Amino acid sequence: MSTPLPDQRPPRRLGPRGRRWFDVLVVVGLLLPAVPLWFSVGPVSSALSVLQVGPLLWRRRHPVAVFWAVTAAHAAQVLLLDEPTLGQVAWPVAVYSVARYAAPVHGWAALAVSAVAALTAAIDWSVGSPDTALTVLTNAILIGAVAAAAWALGTLGRTRQAYVDALVERSDRVQREAAQQVALAAADERARIAREMHDVVAHGLSVIVVQADGARYAARTDPDVAARTLETVAATGREALTEMRRMLGLLRAEDAAVDGGPALRPQPGLADLDALVAEARTAGARVEARLPDPAATTGIADGVGLTAYRVVQEALTNVRKHAGPEVAVRVEVAVAGAGRDRAVVVRVEDDGRGASAEDDGRGLGLLGMRERVGVHGGTLEAGPRAGGGFTVSARIPA
């Protein structure tokens, strides 16, 4: 069983309604302290706090307008008061909002205005202090640092959101391209199935047509020849039907792009086992092979040859994947029996790690081999080999 993937749920985010209520709570929370201080600080200070904090309700939808509204309220404070108000906390929130939700140029403008506002506020609040220059410098740095931090957080949030949006767009594009590739692959597979079926059915039907024409002419002069010819027609039809069924079973598990070859390439068979073994040796495996003589394979159906080839191919692939280094492999393919008992016998064994090899739980090789062999009514056995290693053996009726 494959290892379950870790929890990949996206982080929770507020929806439009949740964001709206959040902004309302922010404004209410900032204004609540101004209510009991209405009589102690005076109506002017409290009213300015309302004008400074109130626009934050629209900071997401209209960040630039909100920033300038808050700026105007703070400018009025400089003209009317010489001391801070509770509404000063609206300034960093407005700077953050314009940097987060507006274009970068507006964020830079807000930062520049913040620098001027910090100096202006520091001068306004420091009038009459014992050490005016030091007080102005200290207040200007403190106010400017708060505004700069708000701008930096807003800019970081905006760039991160842009990055996430780009990833989402890229993911959507990849999914669309993958769907297109699947559609193209399905079209190629349908075309390949049509060609495979044409080769099987057309060959059988052409033989049937020729034999049927011969039987029709022979029926007038030699009924015995006509009878034998009709037997041949029936046998050819049954063979074509059987081969068609086998081909459909094979095509169900075939990949349209195996080995990256051209679509019109012939399917491999027993004659291609030499090349398969040579390829395994080139890859570094020590392979000893005993393959059937070409004369012994005469009359073996193409589907049977293809299945034997695929069994050897998958077994060698499993050796490379699971048996470990410096493995000796023995491949034996033979045609045994005669008549109805004729069969292709395949045996691939190695002296590697065998069943002790680590398995990721996702392999379908043995299942695929059993399905291929089962299409032809054959049997397949696979398991640890006595003395170490692994053995795959199959018997495919020919």
Describe this structure in words.
62% of the residues lie in helices and 9% in strands. The chain has helices at residues 16-31, 38-41, 43-53, 63-80, 90-101, 104-125, 132-221, 223-253, 273-282, 302-323, 365-375; strands at residues 286-290, 328-336, 343-350, 379-384, 390-397. It has 398 residues and is of the alpha+beta class. It folds into 2 domains: 12-255, no CATH class; 266-397, Heat Shock Protein 90. Its cofactor is [4Fe-4S] cluster. It is found in: Cytoplasm.
How many angstroms separate the termini? 36 Å
Number of strands: 5
Compute the average pLDDT. 77
Count structural domains.
2
Low-confidence stretches: 1-8, 255-265, 359-363
- Compressed to H and E, one letter per element, the order equals HHHHHHHHHEHEEHEE
Backbone shape: elongated
Determine the strand fraction and express it as a percent band.
Answer: 5-15%
Supply the number of helical segments: 11
Widest β-sheet, arrangement of strands: 1-2-3-5-4
Largest sheet: 5 strands, mixed
Instruction: Round the Cα radius of gyration to an integer and report it.
Output: 41 Å
Structural class: alpha+beta
Helicity range: 55-70%
Highlighted features:
398 residues, alpha+beta, Heat Shock Protein 90, 2 domains, 5-stranded mixed beta sheet, 11 helices, 5 strands, 9% strand, disordered N terminus, 4Fe-4S, two-component regulatory system
